[in-house]
């Protein structure tokens, strides 16, 4: 079972910034996609940003121009830099990674979630 470890959430005022980090274990064979999702109270989980091996990125329209996803391959780590935060960005943020284990088994792993709260 692949476990992802997230960090970096917290409380910030509107207009502020936070950076989330998510690390995958060093033993995995490959990571094809890493992404951040979020879930606000009473709402469905939604994709925030995604980075595919090779560096292609996708963003939800609501965060384009404010959030940046990046990846540090040597550390199996993905980051989400969140700038110009708004109260509507308040949610639990989850990291997701998909790829192959050393035994060539496919995995679809999730982090434990980290709370981001933006005050107005």
What sort of overall outline do the alpha carbons produce when their principal axes are compared? elongated
User: Would you list the SSEs in sequence order as H and E?
Assistant: EEEEEEEEEEE
Question: How does the major sheet shape up?
Answer: 7 strands, mixed
Portion of residues in helices? under 10%
Structure, described:
By secondary structure, this protein is mainly beta. The protein has no helices and 11 strands. It has strands at residues 5-7, 10-13, 18-23, 30-39, 46-52, 57-59, 67-72, 77-82, 91-100, 106-110, 114-119. Strands 2, 4, 5, 6, 9, 10 and 11 form a 7-stranded mixed beta sheet that branches. It has a 4-stranded antiparallel beta sheet with strand order 1-3-8-7, with no helix packed on it. Strand 9 and strand 10 form a beta hairpin. It is elongated. The model has no long low-confidence stretch (mean pLDDT 95).
Question: Which key features would you list for this structure?
Answer:
120 residues; mainly beta; 55% strand
């Amino acid at each position: 079972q692949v476990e992802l470890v997230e960090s970096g959430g917290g409380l910030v005022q509107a207009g502020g910034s936070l950076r989330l980090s998510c690390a995958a274990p060093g033993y995995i064979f490959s990571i094809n996609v890493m992404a951040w999702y979020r879930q606000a109270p009473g709402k469905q989980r939604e994709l925030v940003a995604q980075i595919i091996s090779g560096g292609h990125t996708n963003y939800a329209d609501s965060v384009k121009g404010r959030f940046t996803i990046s990846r540090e391959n040597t550390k199996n780590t993905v980051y989400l830099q969140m700038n110009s935060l708004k109260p509507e960005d308040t949610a639990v943020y989850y990291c997701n990674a998909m790829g192959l284990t050393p035994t060539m088994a496919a995995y679809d792993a999730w982090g434990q979630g980290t709370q981001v709260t933006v005050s107005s």
